[in-house]
Amino acid sequence: MDRIRQRRGPSGGGSGVVTTYTSGNPNVDDANEFNIQINFSGRWTADKQAIVKWAADFYSQIIAADIHDDFDLNNNLVDDIVLTISTGRIDGNGSPLTGNILAQTSNIIVRDAGTVDEWLPLTASIKLDSTDLHNSSLAGTWDAIILHEMGHALGFVGSIFNQLGLVDNFGNFTGSNAVDAYGGAVPLENSGGSGTAGSHWDEADFAPVGQQMSNELMTGYFVPGEVTLLSDTTIGAFADLGYTVTDPSVGSTSFVVDSHLLMA
């Protein structure tokens, strides 16, 4: 669940709108790459769907290998993950007390413990707040918001961290790949309620190799207009979850996330 200080916690109509989309290279067999199947629900336009497609393809490049197929709760075979992404009211414009929830990820179903790729998500749901989707001040920032929520759907969640033994007694992330990239145990957010605490990098203290980075993709708060960075620490965390990953920023500790797409 992501809010505005902001906290980052084929349906529809119009030309080019689809009901489903599968990420990845169409010239590569699905068994040889990581694919995200998107099922769209709610009211969509082609420009909104374009950002979702871009985000899914982005992760199909970051995650460099297939994970094992498995059956969802309805006994449908899944390769590699299926996300239902919907639009609808979450909290409208929010409130001064609780902030404004822009989007939220829920209903994460994981692969069984003790199996290949245990605890990696199989299906999940992401909802984008329909009021915020019409907020012109956010038009150029939904790429980062959607990437952030997809990160949760792929397993960047405190409950999965804990099941994999990736959190120490002080609330730090201790996966070896993330630790190597960060330069030590990585501080997780310890405030913001159950939708934020434990499932994001700490807003105030996240500083890979000493560089303060409150605008990193998987911190818990979003500020409109800020430049969003994806750090090697986050890439390492996905490796610690069990994915095979590739570093898109060799020679640097982070890079700017920007699709150059607007959600009109």
Give your account of this protein's structure.
- This protein is an alpha/beta fold and 264 residues long.
- The protein has one domain: Alpha-Beta Complex (Leishmanolysin, domain 2).
- It is 21% helix and 21% strand.
- The chain has six helices and 13 strands.
- The strands form four sheets. The protein has a seven-stranded mixed beta sheet. A two-stranded antiparallel ribbon has the order 4-5. The protein has a two-stranded antiparallel ribbon with strand order 9-10.
- A hairpin with a 5-residue loop joins strand 4 and strand 5.
- Helix 5 packs antiparallel against helix 6.
- The chain is globular, with a radius of gyration of 17 Å.
- The N terminus is likely disordered.
Features:
alpha/beta, 264 residues, 7-stranded mixed beta sheet, Leishmanolysin, domain 2, 13 strands, 21% strand, globular
Task: Assign the CATH architecture.
Answer: Alpha-Beta Complex
Termini separation comes to: 23 Å
The count of DSSP E runs of length 2 or more, i.e. the number of strands, is: 13
Instruction: Output the CATH homologous superfamily.
Output: Leishmanolysin , domain 2
| Main beta sheet strand tally, sense and closure | 7 strands, mixed
Number of structurally distinct domains? 1
- CATH topology, by name, is Leishmanolysin, domain 2
Strand content: 15-25%
Alpha-beta content class: alpha/beta
**Helical residue percent?**
10-25%
Number of helices: 6
As residue ranges, the low-confidence spans are 1-14
Highest-level CATH class: Alpha Beta
Widest sheet: strand ordering:
2-3-6-8-7-1-11
Order of helices and strands: EEEHEEEEEHHHEHEEEHE
Q: Would you tell me the overall average pLDDT?
A: 90
Please give the radius of gyration in angstroms.
Answer: 17 Å
